[in-house]
Each structure stands twice: as structure tokens, then as C-alpha cells.
Amino acid sequence: MKTPTRFPAASLLAGALALTLSTLPSPVIGADAPAPAAASTPPATKAPARPPAPTRSPTAPGTPPLTAVGAKAGELRSVPGMNPPVNADGDFLIGPDYLPAPELTVVPGVPQGKVLQFSMDSKDSKFFNPGIAREVFGTVDPQNPKTLIVETHPIDYRRTITVYVPAQYVPGTAAPFIVTHDGPALGKPDQSLPRVLDNLIAQRRVPAMIAIMVAHGGGDAQGHERGREYDTMSGKFAEFIEAEVLPLVEKNAGVKLTQDPEGRATMGNSSGGSAALIMAWYHPEWYHRVITYSGTFVNQQWPFDPATPGGAWEFHATLIPQSPKKPIRLWMEVGDRDNYNPNVMRDGMHDWVEANNRMATALKAKGYHYQYVFAVNAGHSDRNVRNQTLAHALEWAWQGYPVAKGP
């Protein structure tokens, strides 16, 4: 582990309005991103070229009935910049035009938190040591078309942990927090999420939470470390965060993190989004609040697991419908041009729009608190959509949690 580097939030360049949710190209809800620097990662080999994703109609069969935000009855066009009600559950439509939220802007007089970074070496991990990587994309298993045959090799790698601590944090108190995936690279602590939190916390719309942005171990999808961490349907990644990441956050940032699952959230986009829900699903005693953008609720798990043969597709196919309701509050978004069958598998479980539509339907039938946003004129992990909705998504997800009263 390297000594943490601190970046006072007030001194960071504003940069682009990319969210701290993505490494595509901005860091914390990222998807299919360039791998972090690794000690021995071979040159990447691209997966088969993806054809342009088709536009899926918001009125297509299987899509839940959507309410266009701010529109007249029957219109499928929302008011630019307007998001669904922050206290409403259900299915909503936004777009085709978007405006960046004002919370992305630095406001004079608003207290700014601090940002620090440190590194974790894979050799020190009991969960993901060594990492894995592949040189070529897999081929469909002729004995099981739901999975791939992938040749992998071990790698060593180093991941960056970026931590935002709000100015309002009281040392020694147990703080609520949010874990986000696809965190930024060392020395490049994207400031978008801290800026949004600075404004929301100052306005008392969310609690004074700590943000923990965790970089992945490299590559993407089947056969790479990112895919193993994010797409595996088990509690292992949440257990890694709990046992190895959070203690180092407390040590290096000088904070105390709450053990109350109501005060713990996860967030991510694409496979980082499915990873966010996987953490809460398999460990609801740790996490109750989840935000996903373009969630990869499709069949991307590798290696194959007969307990969940469809990977994250099983969330809406079997797990949510057939399991007792869990104490999870979920905000989720998909774009009408989101991913569609982006690899060699043709298993009927690789349409991101269909998967997210099915998620919303399953959540509603089971009585979950959820808000589903269908974004028109939007692609996978769409930057314009995130810029408009991130502050709203955070405020919706934290509904019901105590917020400090001001003077």
C-alpha cells in the first residue's frame, strides 16, 4: 500500500463535467474502461467490433408504462433539465434533450471537502490475488451456449482508492458513505462527484457522507479482472471491500465509517452498476441503497456458475421474483440506444434495455422502492444523462436517512 496523496478539493481543477462514476472516460461509474496501470498486463486485444446499438422505443412491448417528466399527457418528451420527483417511485422518461445539473458547479461559499488517494497492491489481497487477464476474446462453449471458453493468465496489478471527506465530517463520528466503482486513476482524482456532494450536503439534501471510489483490477468482461470482480454473482466483491478496502479508508483518511446498512450506499455504471446491486443483494446487512447507470443485468458472468446460469440476468428472471423482498432501495437508468448483443454470444440475454425494463417490472411486482429512468436519445453510460441526473439520483437514493439540521 502506498502513502496516501491528498488533494484539497478547493485546489483541484474543475475539469470537464464528467461524473466521478466512470472511467469511460471519467472515473467512478465507468464501464468498459481502460485498465489501471498494472505490473504485468499484456497488450489488450479488442473484442469483436460492436455494431451500432439500435434505438429501442419507449413504447415497445415489455417496456413498463413511462411518465415523461414535465410533459403533457401522452407526450414522450420531457422538459430539458427536469428529473422525476425526488420522493416518487416508479417508471419515468427523460430526454431527448439534457441540461447539466447546477450541482456540478462550484458555488462560492459552499464548504468543500478534501480528496485523497492511496494504492492497494494485488499481492496484499486475500480475495483477488493474483488477478486475471486474457489476450483474446472468448469463444462460445459448444457444450453450453450461455458461457464462453476463455484462456486467461495471472497478473499482478495495483488499484487506486479515492476518498472524499466532506467539510462537515466530525472526527470520531461514524459517517454514512457511498462506495462507487471504476474509480479514478492515481493522480487524477476527478472532482465531479465531490463537487456534487459539496452542494447537496450544504443544501441538506443528503447526509454528510464519505465517498469511496474504488478502481477495478484491469480489463473488462469475461476473462479480465474487472469482469471477475463486477460480474460474478456472489458476495465476494462486497466481502473484499468490507475486509480490505474500508479498514484502509478509515486508517488513511482518519475517518470512522458507519456499520448501519441504512447509511451505506453503492453506485456504478455498466458492470459497475451490476456490481453495486450484487453487493447489496448478497450482503443486505451491509448495504441498502443502490444507484445504477446502464446496469449490466445481462449474462456476462464468467466462469459459468450453474447456481446463476444467466449471470446478472437472473436478477429479473429468477432472483427478485422468487426471493423474499430485501431492504434495498434502487435508482436505475438506461438509454434507448444502450448496449445490444455486444459480443459473440447470441443467447437472448444481452440487451441492456430489455434487461433494465425487466428489472423495473420485477421490482414493481415485488413491491420494492425503486425509481427507473428511461433516457431517450441516450447511449450506454451516457454523459449528458449523468450530468443531469447524478445529484437527483443521490438525493432520491438517500430519502429517509437523517440529515443534519442547520441553523
The tally of structural domains comes to 1
Instruction: Report the strand count.
Output: 19
> Quick one: biggest sheet?
11 strands, mixed
Shape: globular
Strand order of the largest sheet: 1-6-11-14-13-16-17-18-19-5-4
Q: Would you identify the regions where 5 or more consecutive residues have pLDDT less than 50?
A: 7-45
User: Which class of secondary structure composition applies to the elements?
Assistant: alpha/beta
What is the arithmetic mean of pLDDT? 87
Given the structure, what is the number of helices? 7
β-sheet strand percentage:
15-25%
Indicate the CATH topology. Answer: Rossmann fold
Helix proportion: 10-25%
Structure in words:
The protein is 21% helix and 21% strand. The longest helix has 18 residues, at 236-253. The model is unreliable at 7-45 (pLDDT under 50). It has one domain (5-397): Rossmann fold, CATH 3.40.50.1820. The protein has seven helices and 19 strands.
Short description:
The protein contains seven helices and 19 strands.
Layout of SSEs?
Elements: E1 5-8, E2 22-23, E3 27-28, E4 67-68, E5 90-94, E6 114-121, E7 131-134, E8 139-141, E9 144-149, E10 152-155, E11 158-165, E12 174-175, E13 177-181, H1 192-202, E14 210-214, H2 225-231, H3 236-253, E15 256-257, E16 264-269, H4 271-282, E17 289-293, H5 314-322, E18 329-335, H6 352-366, E19 369-375, H7 383-397
Parallel strand pairs: 4-5, 5-19, 12-15, 13-14, 13-16, 16-17, 17-18, 18-19
Antiparallel strand pairs: 1-6, 2-3, 6-11, 7-10, 8-9, 11-14
